[in-house]
Amino acid sequence: AIIKTALPNMDREAKEEYFVVIQAKDMGGHMGGLSGTTTVTITLSDVNDNPPKFAQSLYHFSVMEDVALGEPIGRVKANDLDIGENAKSSYDIIEGDGMDVFEITTDAQTQDGVIRVRKPLDFETKKSYTLKVEAANIHIDPRFLSGGPFKDTATVKIVVEDADEPPVFSSPTYLLEVHENAALNSVLGQVTAHDPDVSSSPIRFSIDRHTDLERQFNINAEDGKITLATPLDRETSTWHNITIVATETRNHSQVSRVPVAIKVLDVNDNAPEFASEHEAFLCENGKPGQVIQIVSAVDKDDPKNGHYFLYSLLPEMVNNPNFTIKKNEDNTLSILAKHSGFSRQKQEVYLLPIVISDSGTPPMSSTGTLTIRVCGCSSDGTVQSCNAEAYVLPIGLSMGALIAILACIILLLVIVVLFVTLRRHKNEPLIIKDDEDVRENIIRYDDEGGGEEDTEAFDIATLQNPDGINGFLPRKDIKPDLQFMPRQGLAPVPNGVDVDEFINVRLHEADNDPTAPPYDSIQIYGYEGKGSAAGSLSSLESSTSDSDQNFDYLSEWGPRFKRLGELYSVGESDKET
């Protein structure tokens, strides 16, 4: 079956879809035949037969004058009844006084025309703009060109609103020049700035001290005049770069900055001087008029026409019979000898003061002294020796050799003196003075016995006569002032003697002995006697006592007393068994 249109100029924008019911019959459509039906959906495809149309003919936008470049300020929309590619349009600014200030682009997603700022706006210069915007289809069907142009236009008015702007300097940078000898508080230059707003707020100026750490400059806050605060020195710093800050008095947040370069100009305030400390060498066999040395000068100043130095001798040295000077074309100076026959024996060193002057205004000068040393030279003029001692020393023996020999002799003398001193100290007798002998004699007896009846663990004879049974033993480490006969030692006594009585006797003898040393003597006796009301203090028999004391609490005192608790617990367990 073939379906054909029954109406001409069908319009998709009016109706996009049609539903057609088709019936099919057999038997040629005669009576008794069978039939069936179906529905056919017919969709009209779009063609670009409709131009874009702006929703309104006039658009109004407002924008602040400090808007950033490229920032969108408004959108316009041209509607197209077509769909897809046929509905795409492009936007252009075709007329207006802001064609170079604004631009319009197409948003691919929404097909809007986006107006953006291309150049900075200034409310004080121009407060409004009028633009004519055109929207045109991108894809045009030639079959429908007779239907008219596929484009549309609209007028856009943009109003610029005033914004509080920072101050504006009259120049983006400033260059000032000042001589290094300028007086303090003298004016170096001036910067100017103004508030571009209609309100025109007053401006205050200041120096960013981060750029002037030494505070060499000041600025008048009202008129922007820069003055000198400390002396300048071109030889120390030729350029100074500072930053000037301009601030609105009504709104301190509105701040502008500008760089200021200050160049220090040179004045002639430094005298020339020798480039280095020169020392010239003059051969004894030199000839008259021979150039001894060529010297040069330097000057810290920097004159515009370069340096030109003048050299001269001091007035009292002009007629000296030995040397003269000659100025060279390259601004250097040659020192010449007036005669020959110089001798080191007669005079080894000559000092030649030279006056160096510059050509500045006013001229500066200084005096430098050139040291000229007379030396022995070979026939070809090579310096060999500049010391006068070569004439007074024997052949083959130099001053260095003499110094080395003298040093060896002094070293030998020092060694001999040290040796004699050590031998003398070694032969002196060792004498110990009584008032310096502060030693202590401590005799310890660490044996602990079971009492008087315990004769195996302790020797009672030691208590009876600690000095020995042979009598008095004289001390060998002191020298007694008085000589006494040695006292008779006590004869050995039986073990049954009363120790208390023995100790008292020995104490009496020690107190009355004039030969006893003047220091303390401590003797410890580990004897434990009987008959004490307190009983025995020995722990040796504690295991056999009838004590009922319980030592279980030792195990509660911590790990340090664990071993002690185990020992006593073992003793108690053995006692119970």
From TrEMBL:
<feature type="domain" description="Cadherin">
    <location>
        <begin position="10"/>
        <end position="54"/>
    </location>
</feature>
<dbReference type="GO" id="GO:0016342">
    <property type="term" value="C:catenin complex"/>
</dbReference>
<dbReference type="InterPro" id="IPR015919">
    <property type="entry name" value="Cadherin-like_sf"/>
</dbReference>
<feature type="domain" description="Cadherin">
    <location>
        <begin position="274"/>
        <end position="391"/>
    </location>
</feature>
<dbReference type="GO" id="GO:0016339">
    <property type="term" value="P:calcium-dependent cell-cell adhesion via plasma membrane cell adhesion molecules"/>
</dbReference>
<dbReference type="GO" id="GO:0007043">
    <property type="term" value="P:cell-cell junction assembly"/>
</dbReference>
<feature type="domain" description="Cadherin">
    <location>
        <begin position="55"/>
        <end position="169"/>
    </location>
</feature>
<keyword id="KW-0677">Repeat</keyword>
<feature type="domain" description="Cadherin">
    <location>
        <begin position="170"/>
        <end position="274"/>
    </location>
</feature>
<keyword id="KW-0325">Glycoprotein</keyword>
<dbReference type="GO" id="GO:0005912">
    <property type="term" value="C:adherens junction"/>
</dbReference>
<dbReference type="GO" id="GO:0007156">
    <property type="term" value="P:homophilic cell adhesion via plasma membrane adhesion molecules"/>
</dbReference>
<dbReference type="GO" id="GO:0034332">
    <property type="term" value="P:adherens junction organization"/>
</dbReference>
<keyword id="KW-0130">Cell adhesion</keyword>
<dbReference type="InterPro" id="IPR039808">
    <property type="entry name" value="Cadherin"/>
</dbReference>
<dbReference type="InterPro" id="IPR027397">
    <property type="entry name" value="Catenin-bd_sf"/>
</dbReference>
<keyword id="KW-0106">Calcium</keyword>
<feature type="compositionally biased region" description="Low complexity">
    <location>
        <begin position="531"/>
        <end position="548"/>
    </location>
</feature>
<keyword id="KW-0732">Signal</keyword>
<dbReference type="GO" id="GO:0045296">
    <property type="term" value="F:cadherin binding"/>
</dbReference>
<dbReference type="GO" id="GO:0043083">
    <property type="term" value="C:synaptic cleft"/>
</dbReference>
<dbReference type="GO" id="GO:0005509">
    <property type="term" value="F:calcium ion binding"/>
</dbReference>
<protein>
    <submittedName>
        <fullName>CADH8 protein</fullName>
    </submittedName>
</protein>
<keyword id="KW-0479">Metal-binding</keyword>
<dbReference type="Pfam" id="PF01049">
    <property type="entry name" value="CADH_Y-type_LIR"/>
</dbReference>
<dbReference type="InterPro" id="IPR000233">
    <property type="entry name" value="Cadherin_Y-type_LIR"/>
</dbReference>
<dbReference type="GO" id="GO:0016477">
    <property type="term" value="P:cell migration"/>
</dbReference>
<dbReference type="GO" id="GO:0000902">
    <property type="term" value="P:cell morphogenesis"/>
</dbReference>
<feature type="transmembrane region" description="Helical">
    <location>
        <begin position="391"/>
        <end position="420"/>
    </location>
</feature>
<dbReference type="InterPro" id="IPR002126">
    <property type="entry name" value="Cadherin-like_dom"/>
</dbReference>
<keyword id="KW-0472">Membrane</keyword>
<dbReference type="InterPro" id="IPR020894">
    <property type="entry name" value="Cadherin_CS"/>
</dbReference>
<keyword id="KW-1003">Cell membrane</keyword>
<keyword id="KW-1133">Transmembrane helix</keyword>
<keyword id="KW-0812">Transmembrane</keyword>
<dbReference type="GO" id="GO:0043679">
    <property type="term" value="C:axon terminus"/>
</dbReference>
<comment type="function">
    <text>Cadherins are calcium-dependent cell adhesion proteins.</text>
</comment>
<keyword id="KW-0165">Cleavage on pair of basic residues</keyword>
<dbReference type="GO" id="GO:0044331">
    <property type="term" value="P:cell-cell adhesion mediated by cadherin"/>
</dbReference>
<dbReference type="GO" id="GO:0008013">
    <property type="term" value="F:beta-catenin binding"/>
</dbReference>
<feature type="region of interest" description="Disordered">
    <location>
        <begin position="531"/>
        <end position="552"/>
    </location>
</feature>
<dbReference type="Pfam" id="PF00028">
    <property type="entry name" value="Cadherin"/>
</dbReference>
